[in-house]
Design a protein that fits this description.
single chain, 6 helices, globular
Length: 106
């Protein structure tokens, strides 16, 4: 796995906080205020931490699933997932689609 630069590590930390706290405005601000290459590097990076072995899109989807289970509502998580999907490159999208197909086949 490729190591993140210091700037990318800051972006990563900011995204973890924004996603964990359901702040779609902060997520969008992070995307708007950073270079595309840095955003893609962070979104492609695996291993969010705390047991998450996958990328940020997966992290946001897991958060949505947890919110629905505990609160019975979707809330702002869907907006965050849409934001990540919109800026994610094709590799990330393909990865998530393949994971979804695999989960349905099990």
């Amino acid at each position: 796995m490729v190591e993140l630069t210091d700037i990318q590590k800051k972006i990563r930390a900011s995204l973890i906080i924004a996603i964990s706290n359901n702040y779609p405005q902060k997520v969008q601000g992070i995307f708007d205020n950073n270079e595309c290459d840095n955003i893609q590097a962070v979104l492609n990076h695996e291993g969010i931490g705390a047991g998450y072995k996958d990328n940020f899109l997966d992290f946001a989807i897991i958060g949505l699933d947890a919110k629905v289970k505990t609160q019975g509502k979707i809330g702002k998580n869907v907006k965050i997932i849409k934001q990540i999907w919109k800026v994610a490159n094709q590799e990330i999208r393909d990865f998530m689609c393949c994971r979804a197909i695999d989960s349905f086949q099990r």
